[in-house]
């Protein structure tokens, strides 16, 4: 397994396939996820979005995307983290999250925010974040749709010297 920080043009199609394979994301969410990929591929280092790509056996197995929150001194958003369904439960999501948090901390960011749906489908996702040391900072009922709220998670990272 290898986690790299360079997003390559040839990663786009496997990432799109990975997002579809999870079965979690609706059409609008898929569009947003791919917009972030396209932004990074178009603007490179000038893009707001940073990517980690997990690969093994010459294929993309997962990825994470994060970015500093504009107007803040030490906060970052973790926008996406996904692992191919056939490879879930093997610690790959945790490895991606740890790598993202390390990168975020190296950039001087100590507060990581992420959000997810409160739909029952996302119970395992929310449990994963809680196991990884995140806490629920807020819940917004009916945020995405009636009966589909938003849970906002926070983790405070140690300051790296």
Short characterization:
With 161 residues, this protein is α+β, with helices and mostly antiparallel strands. It has helices at 12-22, 27-43, 92-106, 123-131, and strands at residues 2-4, 50-56, 59-68, 75-83, 111-117, 135-145, 148-156.
Written account of the structure:
The chain has 161 residues and is α+β, with helices and mostly antiparallel strands. It has a single domain (2-156), classed as 3-Layer(aba) Sandwich (Aminopeptidase), CATH 3.40.630.30. The chain is 32% helix and 35% strand. The chain contains four helices and seven strands, in the order βααβββαβαββ. It has helices at residues 12-22, 27-43, 92-106, 123-131, and strands at 2-4, 50-56, 59-68, 75-83, 111-117, 135-145, 148-156. Strands 1-2-3-4-5-7-6 form a seven-stranded mixed sheet, sandwiched between helices. Strand 4 (75-83), helix 3 and strand 5 form a beta-alpha-beta unit. The protein is globular, with a radius of gyration of 15 Å.
């Amino acid at each position: 397994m290898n986690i790299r920080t360079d997003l390559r043009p040839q990663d786009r199609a496997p990432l799109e396939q990975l997002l579809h394979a999870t079965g979690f994301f609706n059409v609008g969410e898929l569009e947003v996820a791919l917009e972030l990929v396209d932004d990074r591929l178009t603007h490179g280092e000038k893009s707001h979005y940073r990517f980690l790509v997990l690969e093994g056996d010459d294929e993309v197995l997962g990825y994470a995307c994060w970015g500093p929150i504009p107007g803040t001194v030490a906060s970052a958003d973790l926008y996406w983290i996904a692992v191919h369904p056939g490879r879930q439960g093997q610690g790959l999501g945790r490895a991606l999250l740890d790598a993202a948090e390390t990168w975020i901390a190296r950039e001087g960011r100590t507060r990581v925010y992420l959000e997810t749906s409160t739909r029952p489908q996302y119970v395992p996702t929310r449990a994963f974040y809680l196991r990884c040391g995140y806490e629920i900072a807020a819940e917004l009922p009916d945020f995405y749709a009636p009966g589909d709220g938003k849970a906002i998670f926070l983790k405070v990272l140690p300051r790296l010297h």
